[in-house]
Write a structure and sequence with these properties.
Two copies of one chain form a homodimer. With 250 residues, the first copy, chain A, is mainly α. In chain A, 72% of the residues lie in helices and 3% in strands. Chain A binds a DNA duplex (30 and 30 nucleotides) through helix 3.
DNA sequence: GCCTCATTTATTGTATACATAATGAATGCA
DNA sequence: TGCATTCATTATGTATACAATAAATGAGGC
């Protein structure tokens, strides 16, 4: 929920952006649906100016698409689009890992990653089928990836990785796929965690090519995971909670 | 020049965006300089609402940076940032080439690329040191790269490539470096053109890994070219013309 | 009965007025 | 003399009024 009237500390623009993002991700605004400014005003409770700003930002974010004659519509994504986005993200993360390895990182920079990794290790010994544990996993995993791209020390790269992350994680179907796959193949998480460990090892040993290859393979695993999930969809009831937790963290 | 008062066919927002982009790229607004809305209003001649839209879009474009307390400043880029951006772009173009190769492309899709390639061949037999020929080269080369990413058939990837192109080509120093390097090492263009030919060949023969490797190497060539240019800067007088032609094509 | 043109309506684009927050300077007090 | 507090000024955030354009619907003619 977007706390429409309360929380005066954040700007109207941000409030509108959060509200609208929530509406899109939760599916209340369907793909391909045109969204008029006045409609957005009704939905968010703020006036047209901040609503327009929010719409422009959501367009840049990739959730909306500008209509030539004016206005915006909710962007539609194919499964192929989402799979491609995962590969793009993996490719960029591969470059990030390689940069980190080639340019060298201090033990101080690596510390938060190792800490995060340890937390993930602990978590993965629990039952990842439960909503709480899975949500915690999603958050920790996202943090690992964010820390990793930071490790590259390259502002343009960090920026690009951020942008390429929008689609795989923003899309409702992405969420459906991610969690449903998880439910039936939680050992995949263990392999993913192995990737996390080995990429850090590669970076520490300055093995750039290896670090890059691991992150690419990591993305391929995620993609495979999702393709698998497309066939046998389960646990769709988990979706709303996941979407909500993701929208909140922005 | 951005034709301030004339050309009523385009929106005020777009006019403001073009004007401001031109001001930034031409260096009249210096890196790190704060740009207030009223100042932007003065400079562009449109009112605050479209100016704000333009500022937000330029922020998303990567040319401006939001100041926490409000407002925007012209973003500053290091040489490292620009070199990284070239590598990022090359990496993504590598994926695009691989996608094209793996998924297959029709002869009809390849036709415009081959035509473009032939035009480049003709051009490269001329004196690339002249402003006209070099400008034409820049335009044709940009078109080749755009067509190539289109060939991937992946909307998310095309989008990402577009975004990663902003920095290397938008930045004035990128232009300085690109053209000054060119002036003293025009044989590099011939090698680059060979890359263009061979990547198409690889795509036609469905050699995905080779296609990807070529585009990566292509970017490395560009990066090397620029590093070289950093040492002996020449022909800086060409800069304004190049910036102007680039700003116009958007 | 269908096609075309005009009128009307709705929606976006633009401008400006107002409010609020931040910044800087000046004055008073310690 | 130095620091803090307050006031003034400037800038951004927000709302709304107005204009222009595009879409839709109706009527009239072919």
């Amino acid at each position: 929920m977007a706390d429409r009237e309360s929380d005066r500390s954040v700007s109207q623009t941000v409030r509108a952006q959060l509200s609208l993002r929530d509406l899109i991700l939760s599916g209340r605004l369907r793909s391909g649906e045109r969204i008029s400014e006045l409609q957005a005003v009704e939905l968010t409770g703020v006036s047209r100016t901040p609503v327009r700003m929010a719409l422009v930002r959501l367009e840049e974010e990739g959730l909306l698409e500008a209509i030539p004659s004016g206005g915006f519509m909710v962007k539609a994504f194919s499964e192929r689009d989402i799979l491609d986005s995962i590969e793009i993200r993996g490719t960029l993360e591969g470059v990030a890992a390689r940069f980190a390895a080639e340019r060298g990182v201090s033990a101080r920079d690596l510390a938060p990653l190792k800490e995060n990794l340890a937390e993930l290790d602990v978590l993965l010994r629990q039952d990842t089928h439960s909503v709480e544990v899975f949500s915690a996993y999603v958050a920790l995993n996202a943090r690992f990836h964010a820390l990793l791209s930071d490790l590259s020390g390259s502002a343009p790269l960090i920026r690009q990785v951020d942008r390429s992350s929008a689609l795989p994680f923003a899309s409702p179907s992405g969420f459906v796929m991610a969690q449903s796959a998880l439910a039936e193949a939680s050992q995949i998480l263990l392999i993913a965690q192995d990737h996390h460990h080995t990429v850090i090892d590669a970076i520490e040993n300055r093995e750039g090519a290896r670090a890059e290859a691991i992150m690419r393979e990591h993305a391929r695993l995620a993609a495979r995971n999702l393709r698998l999930a497309l066939r046998n969809r389960t646990h769709l009831d988990l979706l709303p909670a996941l979407v909500r937790s993701s929208a909140a963290e922005v």
